[in-house]
Design a protein that fits this description.
This protein is α/β, with parallel strands linked by helices. The chain folds into two domains: 3-123 and 208-226, Rossmann fold; 131-203, ACT domain (Alpha-Beta Plaits, 2-Layer Sandwich). It has six helices and 14 strands. The protein has helices spanning 3-13, 30-39, 54-62, 100-108, 140-149, 187-195, and strands at residues 23-26, 48-51, 67-68, 76-81, 85-86, 92-93, 110-118, 131-135, 153-156, 175-180, 200-203, 205-206, 213-218, 221-226. Strands 3-2-1-4-7-13-14 form a seven-stranded mixed β-sheet, with helices on both faces. A four-stranded antiparallel β-sheet has the order 9-10-8-11. A three-stranded antiparallel β-sheet has the order 5-6-12, covered by helices on one side. Helix 1 (3-13) crosses helix 2 (30-39). Bound molecules: ribulose-5-phosphate. Ribulose-5-phosphate binds next to helix 2 and helix 4.
Length: 227
């Protein structure tokens, strides 16, 4: 199976976690896009969605699903989202699609985080994928130096992906640093530490908002990991 087919498989499998009549938390990315496509088949049986990005909001609305603002809803039963890496404890790196801040907010509002991913995302230790960190622009250079002190190399994400290009601006009007060279052996401690740095909006380690379940797409089907 291709990676795209594996994403479609887990996107479809995630429907089992959507409670009829509920408002569902929806993440961002190519795997979530497959989930949104699958959700179209039950759009008349859900009350709507809370979305983690402008891109997902547009996709949900295009298929006729009502999107609520996060402030209109107290708690969500389930949040469904992808990951750039997930380890065997359910800790993740997220933010490859630059939506990490809203993703963490909607995840925090949800009772259960269901991660959908193809098997290439499962790792022993987080850190091979460049760690996304959303930052206030005026703090970016100092934060990059703080990562250098930890052995990391931070690069400002550009719009087109080209080095030195115009910086990408997130849905929140901020910038993204992508940090390579880290081995994150203590995700909870690391997330706590980096969250204290002035100017960090969100670090892309999801340890406090880890997954409860991961639906992992493999060529022999969907494996369900429960953390
Ligand atoms: C977006 C994310 C995505 O969930 C993550 O990047 C995985 O994306 P994809 O499903 O396209 O591989 O965190 O900010």
């Amino acid at each position: 199976m291709t990676q795209d087919e594996l994403k479609a498989l887990v996107g479809q499998a995630a429907l089992q976690y959507v409670e009829p009549g509920s408002i569902v938390g929806v993440g961002t990315g190519s795997t979530v896009n497959k989930f949104i496509d699958a959700l179209a088949t039950m759009k008349d049986r859900i009350a709507g969605a809370v979305s983690s990005s402008v891109a997902s909001t547009e996709r949900l609305q295009a298929i006729g699903i009502k999107v609520f603002d996060a402030t209109e809803v107290d708690e969500l039963a389930v949040y469904i989202d992808g990951a750039d890496e997930i380890d065997h404890a359910g800790y993740m790196i997220k933010g490859g699609g630059a939506a990490l801040t809203r993703e963490k907010i909607v995840a925090a509002q949800s009772r259960k985080f269901v991660c959908i991913a193809d098997e290439s995302k499962l790792v022993q230790t987080l850190g091979s994928f460049p760690l996304p960190v959303e930052v206030i622009p005026m703090a970016a250079r100092r934060i990059a130096r703080q990562f250098a002190a930890l052995g990391g190399t931070a690069t400002l994400r550009s719009k087109g992906g080209a080095a030195g290009g115009e910086p990408l601006v997130t849905d929140n009007g901020q910038h993204i640093l992508d940090v390579t060279g880290l081995k994150i052996t203590d995700p909870l401690g690391f997330e706590s530490q980096v969250n204290q740095w002035p100017g960090v909006v969100t670090v892309g380690v999801f340890a406090f908002q880890k997954a409860h379940v991961c639906l992992l797409g493999a060529s022999d089907g969907v494996r369900t990991l429960v953390f």
